[in-house]
Description:
Strand content: over 45%
Distance between the termini: 39 Å
Helix content: under 10%
Shape: globular
Oligomer: single chain
Largest sheet: 7 strands, mixed
Structural class: mainly beta
Amino acid sequence: QLHLVESGGGLVQPGGxxxxxxxxxxxxxxxxxxxxxxxxxGKEREGVSCISRSGGSTDYSDSxxxxxxxSRDNAKNTVYLQMNSLKPEDTAVxxxxxxxxxxxxxxxxxPSFSSWGQGTQVTVSS
Length: 126
């Protein structure tokens, strides 16, 4: 069965950092562009970041640009999201998903994504 598993979430104080991981099970990630999304209670799922298959191209939403960094280690079949200077408004469940198109990945076009993980909760609070 093909699926992604997110991990690394937790409770952190404002200004703190977390690193999320997105690991693949049953397939290799190097054939896919990967997007990170988040969804806060009562809000729509929001695109956060996207990385191309090779890792050579990345994109960030305006709300996280300069604070979050996406990277991938294809040898470990894992994509990471380093989150720094966290704010209370970053609180959400974070998901990763695969895309066959970097264009649509970078536009966070939801229908183009598949193989979603179950999500990991990030809570930023003092």
